[in-house]
Recover the amino acids of this structure.
């Protein structure tokens, strides 16, 4: 079976005043149709750079990015256009990713306008349907982003990502800026959308606790490289790489009787 997304030996670097920085170093991974792959790593390890390469926002130095077997690396902006509806993104900050001068209806409708999908009336109905699907009241369509909470703004971002019926959604730290209770609501929404629409997710995070039960597979990224990968619960319960063990052990346990640094042992026991 051909993977929906296949990345092979991808390299990406940046020139700085202190020399060349290798953000992504020989990364290979796959995302199959209908599954969630969690890409986990600390800040600065190259997760977002990898996402930008997949989205065509950053040109890699070398390697391959294949969507349904079609090579994406090296395509011009015009050649990329037919593939853009298939891969969409939910960003980390639900406020800065939304134009504060536009009403919610216009923000969600924008992908439809850009790609010329449907008539104006069909686009309007599509926007209202998307708002209902992500848990937003349709009568809020003419409000501005500042009138919503962080969780509601992230729902707006998810609705916009769904507008073109994508097959793969890259979720770049989609809940890290939200309160813990709201994080659970957004993760549950993403799970429901995947079940109903057959979506695939590349879920980028630094928080292993979010992905133990949500993700099908986990890929651990450290200093631009994938150092460990496998089924989510297997990696959680039996981590092989020191970096994975360190991340799990660093998880705080809300119990005063559990000593610091016992995260993995406490959860496993």
């Amino acid at each position: 079976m051909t993977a929906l997304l296949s990345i092979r030996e991808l390299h990406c670097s940046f020139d700085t005043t202190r020399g060349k920085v290798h953000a992504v170093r020989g990364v290979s991974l796959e995302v199959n149709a209908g599954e969630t792959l969690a890409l986990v790593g600390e800040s600065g390890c190259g997760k977002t750079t990898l996402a930008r390469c997949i989205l065509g926002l950053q040109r890699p130095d070398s390697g391959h990015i294949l969507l349904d077997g079609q090579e994406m690396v090296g395509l011009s902006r015009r050649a990329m256009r037919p593939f853009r509806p298939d891969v969409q993104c939910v960003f980390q900050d639900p406020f800065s990713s939304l134009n504060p001068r536009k009403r919610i209806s216009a923000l969600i409708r924008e992908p439809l306008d850009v790609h010329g999908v449907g008539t104006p009336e069909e686009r309007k109905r599509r926007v209202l349907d998307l708002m209902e699907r992500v848990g937003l009241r349709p009568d809020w369509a003419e409000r501005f982003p500042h009138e919503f909470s962080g969780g509601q703004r992230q729902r707006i971002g998810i609705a916009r990502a769904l507008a073109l019926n994508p097959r793969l959604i890259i979720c770049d730290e989609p809940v890290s800026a939200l309160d813990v209770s709201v994080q659970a609501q957004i993760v549950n929404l993403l799970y429901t959308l995947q079940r109903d629409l057959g979506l695939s997710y590349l879920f980028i995070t630094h928080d292993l606790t979010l992905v133990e039960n949500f993700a099908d597979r986990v890929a651990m990224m450290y200093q631009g490289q994938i150092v460990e990968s496998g089924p989510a619960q297997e990696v959680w319960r039996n981590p092989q790489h020191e970096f994975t063990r360190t991340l799990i052990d660093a998880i705080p346990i809300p119990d005063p009787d559990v000593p610091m640094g016992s995260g993995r042992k406490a959860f496993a026991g």
About this structure: The CA atoms of residues 251 and 263 lie 5 Å apart. The first helix runs from residue 47 to 55. The beta strands are 5-16, 19-31, 36-40, 62-67, 70-71, 87-90, 168-172, 200-205, 217-222, 225-231. The first strand starts at residue 5 and ends at 16.
